[in-house]
Design brief:
single chain; 202 residues; mainly beta; 2,3-Dihydroxybiphenyl 1,2-Dioxygenase, domain 1; 2 domains; 6-stranded antiparallel beta sheet; 4-stranded mixed beta sheet; 14 strands; 13% helix; globular; disordered N terminus
Length: 202
C-alpha cells in the first residue's frame, strides 16, 4: 500500500484546549499528489474529572480534492459571511449586542419585530426571532465538543478583551495563547451563543 503514498507524509501534532478538554491531532497523510489529502484526527484526553470508557475513541477521516473546474473569473471574490442566530427576543438581543459588544444596527424588521442585522467594523451577525421562545440552540448544547457558534478574528484581542470586561460581558474562557496559533477568548451572549474573539499569533 505504500506505493500510493506518492508525495508527503506530514506529522502534525497540536493540542486544542477547551473547558479542560485536550484534543490531539495525529498523523496527516497527503496521498496521490497535490490534489488529494487524507486527514486523521482523534481525541485522547477527556474533560477534567471524567474518563472515557476504554472503547470510546473519536476519529474522523477527511479527504480534500481541488476543484476540477477552478474559478475562471479574475474579478470574483467571496467577501464576507454572517452567522444567523435564532433568538427568543430580537429587541433584547439587539440591545445586548449594541450595549455589551459595541455593535450597531439601523433598524429591526417585521411587525412584530423579528429580524435585525448587527454589525461592527467588517463583521455582521443576523438575529431572528421565530415567534416562540426556547428555539435557541447554541452548538455546545448539542455537543460539548462544538464549543463555538462563531469565531471572529480581530486586530487586537487583548484590547477587545479589556473592553468587554469593562462592559460587563460574560467571559466564559479567559484570553490565552492557543497551540493552533491564535490568542483568543470566549464570551456568551444573552441567548447562550458562544463567540470566540481572537487574533493570529504568526
Amino acid at each position: 500500500m505504500f506505493q500510493f503514498l506518492k508525495r508527503h507524509i506530514i506529522k502534525a501534532i497540536s493540542s486544542l484546549r477547551r473547558g479542560g478538554r485536550r484534543c490531539q491531532f495525529g498523523v496527516v497523510f497527503q496521498v496521490g499528489g497535490e490534489s488529494e489529502r487524507a486527514f486523521f484526527a482523534f481525541f485522547t484526553t477527556p474533560p477534567k474529572g471524567h474518563a472515557w470508557p476504554v472503547t470510546r475513541r473519536h476519529s474522523s477521516i477527511y479527504t480534500e480534492k481541488t476543484m476540477t473546474n477552478p474559478n475562471t473569473s479574475a474579478d470574483q471574490s467571496l467577501q464576507f459571511i454572517a452567522p444567523y442566530f435564532i433568538v427568543d427576543d430580537v429587541i433584547q438581543s439587539a440591545e445586548f449586542y449594541r450595549d455589551k459588544l459595541g455593535v450597531h444596527f439601523d433598524r429591526i424588521w417585521g411587525e412584530p419585530p423579528q429580524f435585525v442585522m448587527v454589525g461592527r467594523d467588517q463583521i455582521i451577525i443576523m438575529l431572528k426571532s421565530v415567534g416562540s421562545s426556547g428555539r435557541c440552540r447554541p452548538n455546545h448544547q448539542v455537543n460539548p465538543d462544538a464549543c463555538w457558534d462563531a469565531y471572529i478574528w480581530v486586530k487586537d484581542a487583548d484590547a477587545l478583551y479589556e473592553e468587554f470586561q469593562s462592559r460587563g460581558v460574560k467571559i466564559t474562557r479567559e484570553i490565552e495563547n492557543m497551540d493552533y496559533g491564535c490568542r483568543d477568548f470566549d464570551v456568551e451572549d444573552n441567548s447562550g451563543y458562544i463567540l470566540c474573539f481572537g487574533q493570529n499569533l504568526y
